[in-house]
Amino acid sequence: MGQNSVIVLLGASGNLAAKKLYPALFNLHRRGLLSDKLKIIGFDPTPMRHDDFVGHMKSCVDQSSPELEDHFKAFCERCSYITINQDAGDDSFVELRKRMESFIEGDKAQNRHFYLALPPNIYVAVSEQLRRNCYSEKGDSQIIIEKPFGHDLESSVELHKKLEPNWKESEIFRIDHYLGKEMVKNILTLRFGNPMFGALWDCNHIDNIQISMTEDIGTEGRGGYFDDVGIIRDVMQNHLTQLMALTTMERPGSFSAEDLRQEKARVLRLVPPLETKHTLAGQFVKSGDGKHPGYKDDDDVPEDSRCATFCASVAYVRNARWEGVPFILKSGKALSESKTEIRIQLKDTTDAMLKDTNHNQLIIRIQPHEAVRLKMNAKQPGLELRTVETELDLTYKQTVEDPDIPEAYEALLLDAFKGDYSESVSEQELEASWKIFTPLLHELEGNKDIQPAPYVYGSEGPDGLEDFVASYQFQK
Fold first, then answer.
1. What ranges in 176-256 are assigned the alpha helix state H?
2. Biggest distance spanned by C-alpha atoms of the chain
3. Is the pLDDT of residue 208 over 90?
4. Which of 87, 277, 321, 462 has its CA 20 to 30 A from that of 6?
5. How many CB atoms lie within 10 A of CB 69?
6. What angle do CA 234, 237, 239 make, to 5 degrees?
7. What is the rounded distance in angstroms from the CA atom of residue 13 to the CA atom of residue 52?
8. Using CA of residue 393, residue 397, residue 400, residue 401, what is the dihedral sign?
9. Structure confidence by residue, pLDDT tens digits, 45-72
């Protein structure tokens, strides 16, 4: 980590930088995980002097103690800002190159990381200007981009083709922030570090798997943006697909980026496209008490919008390990609670000896309150042989003293700086995931006879949801 390096935040005045990138970079700094020679440059059209930039970053990070204040002062010594002149062609990018070159000590190489915290529709144009003016001749260069990576399979392939002439696959770090979450990173350790789970990890023992991400808030003034995206593109095609890949992939030859990403892509290619007959889509209406508006109450949402704010769909993996096991993928906004979890439900026990037993379940809680819980049957205390459901609970905050759980962006940025692509989404994974979801998206959006089922803000979801998931063997 002692090499000359710089990270340029394009979109330095935006929400992503404020909410995620500045806090993550500051936390890496205070943990001592950044090279002393790493510099940070904000690059944005919003006019800011250095003091303004420092003040902006100050409002974004935790300074609740004198120690943190001291860390922030040292952090700011890494940072500078350039105001982009959008009417001057490449001039601002030439200025950026000169600024980066001024940080080079002697005739040494400099690694350059360009974080495109920008609207995806300008990725290509900006990446071309960066390649033309700012590419490192003696070090490594890398662009870091956020989802969405296209709108469907065709547009995703087209985006890759347009980036490809200037940036090799090994120079593109695609962020799916779920891959940086502590419990997501823990999935492979749970699977491959515990033989008791490995022995059960197949269709002979597992009945069904539910992977869900729900939120208790609506679109919160972002209805206009969300209407062009929908819950499938926003969550399911990326976050839930990555969770499914980590849950179902075969043991990789190593934990190297190449081996991990190959195994994820390999298993995703075995998932047939999702179908409307195995899908329940919904759209939230105002809450029962009228305090929370419905989706179409947003002024930016068309009155005839059929955009899904909720979706449950069932996927299958066509291989010997997972043959016949339904994977119930579920996500929605304006529901009763916010949580992300993987719920693995094992097959029933026989009734020959014991009556009224429950399914064993392994529950991996991604957020909030990171935990692993195992639901199992035990004898109820007393003179009769009766069973009761019990639970082995590994909740991080209860079992680990003062757990210091890094934020997802801390882990991902550190990987990017190290050149570790194990948690970057590969082009192969991306293509495989879009093949799963694109036919469903086109059918839901193109067939006007398909209307999303209404559900009340703050509810569990559309009517019929419980029957839908129960039809695929899932039991509460």
1. 182-192, 195-198, 223-227, 230-231, 241-248
2. 85
3. yes
4. 87
5. 11
6. 75
7. 11
8. negative
9. 999 999 999 999 999 998 777 888 899 9
Which helix (H) or strand (E) covers residue 114, if one does? strand 110-116
Radius of gyration over every alpha carbon of the chain, rounded to an integer in angstroms: 24
Cβ atoms of 113 and 419 closer than 8 Å? no
What residue type is 317 in one-letter code?
A: V
300: which 2 tokens? 């930016």
Say whether pLDDT at 403 is over 70.
no
Are the C-beta atoms of 81 and 53 separated by less than 8 Å? Answer: yes
List, as one string, the DSSP characters of 390-410: EEEEEEHHHHSSS-----HHH
Q: What is the DSSP string of 347-359?
A: PPPPTTT--SPPP
Instruction: Assign residue 144 a region (left: φ > 0; alpha: ψ between -120 and 50; beta: otherwise).
Output: beta
- List, by residue number, the catalytic residues: 239
Residue type, 54: V
Give yes or no for a contact between 190 and 421, defined as CB atoms under 8 angstroms apart.
Answer: no
Copy the structure tokens of residue 161: 């083709």
The Cα 194–Cα 372 span in angstroms is: 13
* Backbone torsions φ then ψ of 324, nearest 5 degrees: 85, -5
Q: 229 with 148: CB under 8 angstroms? A: yes
CA atoms within 13 A on the CB side of 301: 26
Q: How many residues make up the chain in this entry?
A: 476
Which are the contacts of 264, defined by CB distance < 8 A and separation ≥ 6? 242, 245, 246, 249, 426, 429
Provide the pLDDT for residue 393.
84
Per-residue pLDDT tens over the stretch 439-473: 999 999 999 999 999 999 999 999 999 999 999 87
Return the residue matching tokens 């066509």: 318
